[in-house]
Amino acid sequence: MSSVADVLGDTFGRIGDDVVALVEPTSDADLVRRVAPGANTVGWLVWHLLRVQDDHVADAAGTEQVWFASGWVDRFGLPFEAGATGYGQTPDEVDAVRPTAELLTGYAREVTAATQRYVSGLDEGDLDRVVDEGWDPPVTLAARLVSVIGDDLKHLGQAEYAAGLS
To answer: Which of 9, 51, 116, 146 is the most exposed place for a label (fewest CB within 10 A)?
Structure first.
């Protein structure tokens, strides 16, 4: 039987692999094109899902986000708060996220590796640890990781759909 670490590592690995498989063959122009007025771009959707994963997992792990630790914040050069994850962004802010495929795949690989390193050390007993007391009820590690996986998969599916309309 697989351990918690194996299941989580495989899940996050699949997300990372699927992000790379989607982005690598996509032109930079297609990454920033809206398929309909007000729609999020493929590039923004992928950037956002990676930022949420990086932010939330780093917080749970008590580590620095890859975004900052490896200088991705500077490489992307976005015109808003350095710690932004995309949550609640306006259409103009979505338009400001204009990544290349190379930037997105590099960041995706590093976020995936950092996440997998963290989850590889987890066991079932770790999942009940409270990682965010700002909610009622407080958020456990299990709930946080499931939330990140769900958010990643929703945004990845949206990005795949939008890319398919190109």
So the answer is: 146
| Residue 75: count of CB within 10 angstroms of its CB | 15
Give every CB contact of residue 130 below 8 A, 6+ residues apart in sequence.
138, 139, 140, 141
- Using CA atoms, how far apart are residues 104 and 31, in angstroms rounded to an integer? 10
CA distance 109 to 23: 12
Phi/psi of residue 92, nearest 5 degrees: -65, -40
Torsion of CA 86, 88, 90, 96, to 10 degrees: -10
Cα–Cα dist 144/146, whole Å: 6
The reported pTM is 0.96
Tens place of pLDDT per residue across the chain (166 aa)? 579 999 999 999 999 999 999 999 999 999 999 999 989 999 999 999 999 999 999 999 999 999 999 999 999 999 999 999 999 999 999 999 999 999 999 999 999 999 999 999 999 999 999 999 999 999 999 999 999 999 999 999 999 999 998 7
For 72, how many CA atoms within 13 A lie in the half-sphere containing its CB? Answer: 27
